[in-house]
């Protein structure tokens, strides 16, 4: 959490304690408190070790989690010829690409199928009710001995660094959910907390503004802190403190810049555009999951525009053991509105080719409808919707059998999907590596991108 105020325990005449002042630049990353200078030094070290700095063209990914397991048979892979207890209540509708059909809850997305691709054969799910594989591609147990496998956003933070020093490269918008794993924005794993997501919750937003502190007063404190660092550097014969001053300067740049705060302020948007996205209310079927907060997709676009490389968010609660069709009518129509608005918005701003957008969940749902008009967990196969990023769109990848039970054409593993996202960001998963805590080079994923999309 960016903060300039400590507890008013005395010290300076304005009520800011010496301890609080010296903690200027803290950020709340996950459950660990790390100072922003630490993060910036880590990123600078990563770039200095040959991983490369930010590219001239700002590539980005918006990772939308349909947490709980969205029913592929009612959204992207309808089976109208299957028995009634399999096909459910929805009818397929034509898209603007001949021969491709989607569920009737998605008319707006159907009208822009040429700008998207469907993956109907996502396999490799472990069946865990979390977003770990959507974040990292790997199983939850992989590399836990050294801290766990880093998420997409964390790898991107480490390998590419920030586009702008005042804007974190990885932002997690997911609101806290009662089932905590559904609000996981992606962990840093063995890369360490410096590369975790920035989560702009209420307290973080409040402390990113200089309430009562002028730019001149901040500059005075910046000067004082620099003198402390220079004093320590003079007595440090090892040179270990080299670079502290520059990293701390970047921390002040973040604190004094309005870019991140402005990006998170939706009141700056044209009300007509906000209406196009909608707000997703009322939040039906939320239970222990995320709300259908349409405005987070608009916020994601604003963050990418400000310089964020990876935005993750959790949209809705798709665990439809009962009332599956009512839930899809509610969640689906809202998703259709905001996701189509996002694609149109990115395209209008010339950002779509540089921004890949994906919407998917941790697994699919049972072909057979249960006695509560619901569908249960089905890790055997799932689906994903993807657009932008310079990918080859207007097509369907893979297919399931006539009952939607299993992939019978072109199975696509989670890792292949992640590899495709990395490719869109300019990261070559067959070549680019980072070092784990044991000093061993590690590739972000060990499978190639989806060849049909790149």
Terminal residue distance = 38 Å
Q: Compute the gyration radius: what is it?
A: 23 Å
Q: What is the molecular shape?
A: globular
- Which class in CATH terms? Alpha Beta
- Report the strand count: 18
Decide which structural class fits the backbone. Answer: alpha/beta
Helical run tally: 14
Percent range for β-strand residues: 5-15%
Under CATH, the homologous superfamily reads Alkaline Phosphatase, subunit A
- Roughly what percent helix? 25-40%
Q: What composes the largest sheet?
A: 8 strands, mixed
> Mean pLDDT, as a whole number?
85
Q: Quickly give the CATH architecture.
A: 3-Layer(aba) Sandwich
CATH fold-level topology: Alkaline Phosphatase, subunit A
Low-pLDDT runs of 5+ residues are 1-37, 47-55, 231-247
Number of domains: 1
What does this 3D model show about the protein?
- The chain has 454 residues and is α/β, with parallel strands linked by helices.
- Residues 1-37, 47-55 and 231-247 have low confidence and may be disordered.
- It has helices at residues 18-21, 36-51, 84-87, 107-110, 132-136, 152-160, 202-206, 215-234, 244-256, 259-263, 271-277, 295-306, 324-348, 414-424; strands spanning 26-29, 32-35, 60-65, 92-94, 101-103, 116-123, 170-172, 310-314, 355-360, 364-365, 377-378, 382-388, 395-397, 399-400, 407-409, 412-413, 434-435, 441-442.
- The longest helix is centred in the last third of the chain and has 25 residues, at 324-348.
- The chain has a single domain (58-200, 268-442), classed as Alkaline Phosphatase, subunit A.
- Helix 8 (215-234) packs antiparallel against helix 9 and helix 12 (295-306) runs parallel beside helix 13 (324-348).
- Strands 3, 6, 7, 8, 9, 12, 13 and 16 form an 8-stranded mixed beta sheet that branches. Strands 1-2 form a two-stranded antiparallel sheet. It has a two-stranded antiparallel sheet with strand order 4-5.
- This is DUF1501 domain-containing protein.
- InterPro entries: Alkaline_phosphatase_core_sf (IPR017850), DUF1501 (IPR010869).
- It holds the Pfam family DUF1501.
- It comes from Tautonia plasticadhaerens.
């Amino acid at each position: 959490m960016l903060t300039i105020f400590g507890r008013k325990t005395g010290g300076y005449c304005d009520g800011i304690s010496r301890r609080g002042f010296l903690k200027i630049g803290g950020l709340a990353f996950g459950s660990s408190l790390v100072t922003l200078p630490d993060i910036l030094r880590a990123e600078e070290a990563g770039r200095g070790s040959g991983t490369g700095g930010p590219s001239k063209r700002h590539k980005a990914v918006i990772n939308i989690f349909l947490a709980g397991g969205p029913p592929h048979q009612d959204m992207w892979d309808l089976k109208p010829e299957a028995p009634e207890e399999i096909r459910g209540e929805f009818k397929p509708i034509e898209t603007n690409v001949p021969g491709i059909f989607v569920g009737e809850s998605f008319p707006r997305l159907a009208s822009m199928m040429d700008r998207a691709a469907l993956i109907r054969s996502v396999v490799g799910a472990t069946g865990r009710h979390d977003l770990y594989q959507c974040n990292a591609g790997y199983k939850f147990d992989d590399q836990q001995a050294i801290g766990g496998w880093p998420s997409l956003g964390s790898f991107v933070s480490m390998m590419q660094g920030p586009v702008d020093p005042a804007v974190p490269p990885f932002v997690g918008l997911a609101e806290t959910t009662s089932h905590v794993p559904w609000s996981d924005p992606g962990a840093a794993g063995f890369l360490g907390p410096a590369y975790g997501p920035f989560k702009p919750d209420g307290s973080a937003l409040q402390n990113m503004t200089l309430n009562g502190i002028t730019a001149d007063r901040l500059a005075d404190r910046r000067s004082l802190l620099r003198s402390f660092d220079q004093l320590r550097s003079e007595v440090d014969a090892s040179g270990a403190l080299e670079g502290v001053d520059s990293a701390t300067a970047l921390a002040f740049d973040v604190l004094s810049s309005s870019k991140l705060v402005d990006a998170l302020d939706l009141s700056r948007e044209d009300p007509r555009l906000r209406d196009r996205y909608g707000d997703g209310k009322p939040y039906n079927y939320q239970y222990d999951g995320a709300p259908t907060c349409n405005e987070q997709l608009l916020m994601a676009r604003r963050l990418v525009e400000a310089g964020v490389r990876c935005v993750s968010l959790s949209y809705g609660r798709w665990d439809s053991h009962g009332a599956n069709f009512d839930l899809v009518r509610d969640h689906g129509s809202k998703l259709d509105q905001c996701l189509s608005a996002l694609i149109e918005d990115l395209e209008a701003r010339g950002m779509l080719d540089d921004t890949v957008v994906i919407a998917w969940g941790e697994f699919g749902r049972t072909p057979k409808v249960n006695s509560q008009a619901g569908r249960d967990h089905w890790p055997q196969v799932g689906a994903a919707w993807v657009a932008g990023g310079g990918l080859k769109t207007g097509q369907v990848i893979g297919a399931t059998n006539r009952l939607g039970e299993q992939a019978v054409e072109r199975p696509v593993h989670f890792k292949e999907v992640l590899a495709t996202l990395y490719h869109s960001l300019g990261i070559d998963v067959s070549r680019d590596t980072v070092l784990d805590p044991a000093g061993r080079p590690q590739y972000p994923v060990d499978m190639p991108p989806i060849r049909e999309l790149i």
